[in-house]
Design a protein that fits this description.
The complex is a heterodimer of chains A (83) and B (224).
Chain A: H1 5-26, H2 31-52, H3 60-80
Chain B: E1 8-15, E2 18-25, H1 38-41, H2 48-74, H3 76-81, H4 88-112, H5 117-147, H6 156-187, H7 197-222
Helix pairs in contact in B: 2-6, 2-7, 4-5, 4-7, 5-6, 6-7
Classes of the chains: A mainly alpha (83), B mainly alpha (224).
């Protein structure tokens, strides 16, 4: 298997998922933990949009909509940590 | 008077004995602003109809996410306790399986672009295998929940959990069937490096399903 950009993103996404799970299992959901999880979820989403869906360099309006969605909902995780 | 662009076709027709010029649009559906055209905004992966579908699905899941946060606001204890009763290791495994399926789909697209049909098909089968693995694990998770006496009405958290996960389960199911369909289309010679928009449309739909799970997983399994 040739090791290229797709493989790096794939392994990175798997690593982030395992980190999130470890944090979730071992720490209560404080504001700090919620921010960390929200940011990593955002990053995972943006990687999939840009490199798997190939919207980086693609249709800018579709990319904007997808990115806005993946920024909005993880942001609500942070907001929900305050109530 | 609208501007004429390069997608338009000029027809010279005879009406009432007079020669008239009629301009018609050839490619554009005419339902989006011109700023959305591929010429102005960039290439659309797949095709426009699949993006109408994807944006509809995103709206549907968006409503689920809003419902999740509203319910969490009103029942914080249920949402704090609920995830502790779930089979987290199945949730994690399913996340890794779906991420891998997205990777295999991206590899399939990379191979069709160089006319490597065999490798493209192999990666598509791997994506199907991931989809099937997800469905089997999820079915077992629902069965395990039942054994643990967890049902849709156990708490508000589990009502939201079943709404979200079962809906997502259905999406994975029919999209996996669609991948099998495109494999047979690929075998029949429907796709090549020059024309593979149908395969690409399915690929972006598959990635959308993966994206939804990326959001669902932390909400239901990680945050306490």
């Amino acid at each position: 298997m040739k090791f290229g950009k797709l493989e790096i993103f794939w392994l990175g996404l798997i690593g982030i998922t395992l980190l999130n799970t470890f944090v979730g299992e071992n720490f209560s959901s404080t504001v700090l933990v919620s921010v960390l999880i929200a940011l990593t979820v955002m990053y995972k989403g943006l990687v999939v949009i840009d490199h798997f869906m190939e919207l980086k360099g693609g249709h800018k309006n579709l990319r904007f909509l997808m990115r806005a969605y993946l920024i909005l909902f993880p942001s609500l995780i942070v907001v929900s940590a305050f109530f | 008077m609208r501007q004429i662009d390069k997608d338009d076709v000029n027809w010279i027709v005879r009406l009432d004995g007079k020669l008239m010029s009629i301009t018609t649009q050839q490619k554009s559906l005419g339902i989006f602003p011109r700023s959305w055209s591929e010429d102005k905004a960039g290439r659309i992966p797949g095709n426009i109809p699949i993006w109408v579908g994807i944006l509809s699905e995103l709206t549907e899941f968006g409503i689920f996410f809003v419902a999740y946060f509203i319910a969490k606001y009103h029942y914080p204890e249920a949402f704090s306790e609920g995830p502790k009763y779930l089979h987290t290791s199945i949730g994690v495994t399913n996340t890794l399986v779906l991420l891998s399926s997205s990777y295999f789909m991206a590899k399939a697209m990379a191979n069709i672009r160089v006319d490597n049909f065999k490798r493209c098909e192999r990666y598509l089968w791997l994506a199907v295998a991931c989809g099937a693995t997800y469905l089997i694990l999820k079915t077992y998770e629902f069965y395990w929940n039942d054994l643990e006496n967890i049902h849709t009405n156990t708490s508000t958290f589990f009502t939201v959990y079943y709404y979200m996960t079962f809906n997502h389960f259905l999406h994975v199911g029919w999209a996996a069937c669609a991948v099998v369909y495109v494999i047979f289309r690929l075998r029949s010679g429907a796709y090549s490096s020059k024309e593979h928009s149908g395969l690409e449309a399915l690929a972006v739909y598959w990635h959308m399903i993966d994206l939804m799970w990326i959001l669902i997983f932390p909400l239901l399994y990680v945050l306490r």
